[in-house]
């Protein structure tokens, strides 16, 4: 990747492009960082790049030197032009991953009050904010963007897996990390980490991430795929409303459930013949059961644990899916999603009821159990 930084202070980028992981990536030729100084692209001979703001209120970077700098940068080939500023869209891991596919990024660094808005209209593809505070210049935001994006380029960070384990890569906060000494000022490293049982370590780390995220950043759980942070299984029970669901459709639905990490799709069938045809055609991802209770009993036996049963009946009331997602993450129990049937379903069984999946102006909601299933599973376990 080539990054061209348009800045009146190129010396600020020097140490950054020579040090640490970024420095190594530049050495390895995986990343190239260039600077263009708008002072070299001014109209007059004084190298004037800023002027008084119209309407008073400090200095503003002039449009022409910046535009000429961007054109010069683009001489090296098509590029996505970024302008870091407090008015930009928030930088997050998703945006970082989408920027990482670019061959050439041009980042224009503001100074003083900012830049002439006409330059932004004429030359900038994306305004990006690194946070709701005001800095003295765009160089630090430029380095933040390059640092985060460079980590997504294969070969920049040693172990790819390290990137995948990161905070936010799956939309959750990271697990705590420890190194030697095992005891420091009377503080011990959690025993599970020195026990060598890697499944136990993975499970402890998952639980730590889940607890931290739920405790500190419930806001990001909405967009997270919580699947990798659940120790127990996820199941779907489908209760066909009226007529039986054709086996082919059920196996498609089982495919969707599997995609979202479910261990089994259980379908309540009316009679023996329905069960046989279903078993014959829908494959082993689907299990035909005669009643809800037998479905829950089958899961309970398999998971050797009490489940958190989440019923989606599409009727008014019920818990918002985002809140349900947080509870699902907090509960260390197997998750059972029940789609179809009605309010009376599972009367007397401990369950949570999901609110309807609303559309339009919130006055219409999904009634089809299979569609509801895919929407809800994507909201809980979809990759964002
Ligand atoms: C900023 C931010 C930021 C504003 C005026 C530079 C400064 C000066 N950039 N996220 N927050 N920029 O404060 O990206 O021109």
Dominant shape: elongated
- Largest sheet: spatial strand order: 12-11-10-14-13-15
Largest sheet: 6 strands, parallel
Structural class: alpha/beta
Q: Count of helices?
A: 15
Distance between the termini: 24 Å
Radius of gyration: 27 Å
The number of strands is 17
Helix content: 25-40%
Instruction: Give the overall average pLDDT.
Output: 89
Beta-strand percentage range: 15-25%
Low-confidence stretches: none
Enumerate the distinct ligands: ligand 4FV
Short description:
The protein is α/β, with parallel strands linked by helices.
Give the tags:
alpha/beta; single chain; five-stranded parallel β-sheet; six-stranded parallel β-sheet; 38% helix; 384 residues
SSE topology:
Blueprint: E1 2-6, H1 13-18, H2 20-27, E2 32-36, E3 50-52, E4 59-61, H3 63-74, E5 80-90, H4 93-99, E6 104-108, H5 117-123, E7 126-129, H6 139-150, H7 160-165, E8 183-184, E9 187-188, H8 191-194, H9 198-216, H10 218-221, E10 234-239, H11 247-259, E11 264-268, H12 272-282, E12 286-289, H13 292-303, E13 308-312, H14 321-330, E14 335-340, E15 352-354, E16 358-359, E17 364-365, H15 369-381
Parallel strand pairs: 1-2, 1-6, 5-6, 5-7, 10-11, 10-14, 11-12, 13-14, 13-15
Antiparallel strand pairs: 3-4, 8-9, 16-17
Helix pairs in contact: 3-5, 11-12
This protein binds ligand 4FV.
Residues 84-86, 110-112, 114, 129-131, 133-135, 137-138, 141 line the site of ligand 4FV.
Report on the structure:
This protein has 384 residues and is α/β, with parallel strands linked by helices. It is built from 15 helices and 17 strands. It has a six-stranded parallel sheet with strand order 12-11-10-14-13-15, sandwiched between helices. α3 (63-74) packs parallel to α5 (117-123) and α11 packs across α12. It is elongated. Residues 84-86, 110-112, 114, 129-131, 133-135, 137-138, 141 line the site of ligand 4FV.
């Amino acid at each position: 990747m080539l990054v061209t930084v348009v800045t009146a202070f190129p010396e600020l980028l020097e140490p950054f492009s020579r040090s640490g992981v970024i420095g190594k990536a530049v050495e390895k030729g995986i990343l190239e960082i260039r600077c263009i100084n708008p002072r070299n692209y001014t109209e007059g001979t004084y190298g004037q790049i800023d002027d008084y703001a119209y309407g008073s209120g400090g200095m503003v970077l002039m449009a022409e030197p910046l535009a000429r700098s961007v054109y010069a940068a683009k001489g090296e080939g098509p590029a996505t032009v970024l302008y870091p500023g407090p008015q930009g869209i928030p930088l997050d891991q998703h945006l970082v991953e989408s920027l990482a596919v670019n061959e050439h990024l041009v980042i224009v660094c503001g100074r003083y009050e900012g830049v002439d808005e006409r330059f932004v209209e004429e030359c900038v593809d994306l305004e990006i904010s690194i946070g709701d505070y005001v800095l003295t210049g765009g160089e630090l935001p430029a380095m933040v963007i390059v640092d985060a994006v460079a980590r997504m380029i294969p070969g920049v960070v040693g172990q790819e897996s390290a990137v995948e384990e990161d905070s936010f890569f799956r939309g959750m906060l990271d697990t705590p990390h420890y190194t030697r000494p095992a005891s420091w000022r009377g503080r011990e490293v959690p025993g599970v980490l020195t026990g060598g049982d890697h499944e136990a370590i993975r499970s402890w780390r998952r639980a730590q991430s889940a607890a931290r995220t739920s405790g500190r950043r419930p806001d990001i759980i909405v967009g997270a795929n919580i699947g990798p942070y659940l120790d127990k299984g996820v199941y779907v029970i489908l209760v066909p409303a009226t007529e039986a669901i054709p086996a082919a459709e059920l196996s498609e639905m089982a495919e969707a459930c599997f995609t979202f990490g479910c261990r089994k799709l259980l379908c309540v069938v009316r009679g023996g013949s329905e069960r046989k045809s279903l078993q014959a055609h829908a494959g082993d991802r689907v299990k035909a059961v005669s009643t809800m209770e037998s479905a829950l009993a089958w899961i309970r036996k398999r998971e050797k644990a009490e489940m958190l049963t989440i019923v989606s009946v599409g009727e008014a009331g019920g818990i918002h899916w985002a809140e349900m997602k947080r509870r699902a993450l907090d509960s260390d129990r197997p998750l059972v999603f029940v789609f179809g049937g009605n309010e009376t379903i599972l009367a007397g069984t401990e369950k949570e009821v999901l609110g309807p999946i609303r559309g339009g102006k919130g006055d219409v909601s999904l009634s089809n159990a299979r569609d509801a299933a895919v929407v809800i599973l994507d909201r809980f376990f979809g990759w964002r």
